[in-house]
């Protein structure tokens, strides 16, 4: 089978809600990532076959062929097409997988896979609330779905609580995990670990180059004082991912493109897996998805040097670690979404960008990335750093 290679990665530093990136139109954020991938790789912009853009809340400034608008705002010629996809939190990880599939099939040679989400300018659920207010139907879940699962209340917050209880975690466990996320992200930032992957962008008063969500003063006491999302629960805003504005992208090419354009690969894509499971507990699917990916790749978890498991809620990566019997020291080594933010449709490419750079910085070989996603879906991608 033909191979797919990653040549370049790039991301914006995360912006807090109403923070540094609040004045940036999301199409322009996407364009900045596209331009950085082209500039850093040195490829002819006209050589790009397609741009695949993940975005969850496709409304307002993120509506109307949003991926194409990112291209039109960039330095790419108008001859380059684009498409927008939504696999919920895994949207841009799926962008990478679609790009790799296109390259591996031989139908395309150079594809930008990316994601963009401005959660400030296009708040979460904007697309749903518009249709509900306009009286357009009864919502996304039909009566048939309700009959099949005994509910129409599919909630990620409830799913996170269910995972915490199922795996025997308490709030102190979740808060301790959250604190470690901040500590790792702060250490990585101060060591310059993110410098190469971040694309500086102009903001009022200077340049935006640092993830805004990291709390240098984070403490177990402070995290533990944050109000719980539901009475008697364990999930709080402090042990869940942060609302975030961001964009990230990956340049995926074929072996023929490497030679034709004199490109140097930074990683080879080893395995692409996506699975579906229980939509009620919802966020547990990365566990069986990882087992399947490892089996298909002929690998064991001990063969993987680093893991990126999205910190949508603390119990998600914690349960993954427990069930995979994985090494906590290899997990989210530079922090995760609890500290760095979770810009929904951009997070997949964001995590992959960080994973590639973390592997290179440590001279490690294999990395695995997985995301929990709405509806009980999970993507897994295994990479080999080159």
Automatic annotation (TrEMBL):
Q: Where is the active site?
A: 89, 342, 372
Pfam annotation, one family: Thiolase_N
The residues covered by the Thiolase N-terminal domain are 5-255
**What are the protein's GO molecular function terms?**
acetyl-CoA C-acyltransferase activity
Ranges for domain Thiolase C-terminal: 263-384
Which keywords does this chain's UniProt record carry? Answer: Acyltransferase, Transferase
Q: Which InterPro entries match?
A: Thiolase, Thiolase-like, Thiolase_C, Thiolase_CS, Thiolase_N
* Superkingdom as given in the UniProt entry: Bacteria
- UniProt family annotation: Belongs to the thiolase-like superfamily. Thiolase family.
Output this protein's name. Acetyl-CoA C-acetyltransferase
- Protein's organism: Pseudooceanicola nitratireducens
